[in-house]
Amino acid sequence: MESFHSILIVDDEPSIGQPIRKFLSDLGYQTFYAPDGQQALALYDQQRYDIILTDLKMPKMHGYNLIKEIFQRDPEQVIIVMTGVEETNIFQELMSMGVRMIISKPFSMKYLLANIRGILDHKATMHKSQPAALTDMRSKVVSELKDVTTTLGAQLEDIQGHFKKTITELEKQQQDMERDYIGSVRMMAEMMESSREGASSHIARVEDLANRIGKEAGLPPVNMRNLSLAALMHDIGKFNLPEATLHKRPEDMNPDELAAYQKHPSIGGIIVSSVPGLAQVGMIIEEHHENFDGSGFPAGKLGSEMLFTSRILRIADGVDRYNEGLCDSRSPAGLDPQFKQCLDHLRRKVDIYYDRTLVDCAIRALGNLQHERSNLTPMDLKISALRPGMRLAQDLYNAQDLYLLRRGVILTERSIERLINEFVQTGKNPKVRVYVPKRGA
Question: Which domains does the chain have, with CATH numbers?
Answer without folding.
Answer: 6-151 (3.40.50.2300), 168-374 (1.10.3210.10), 377-441 (3.90.105)
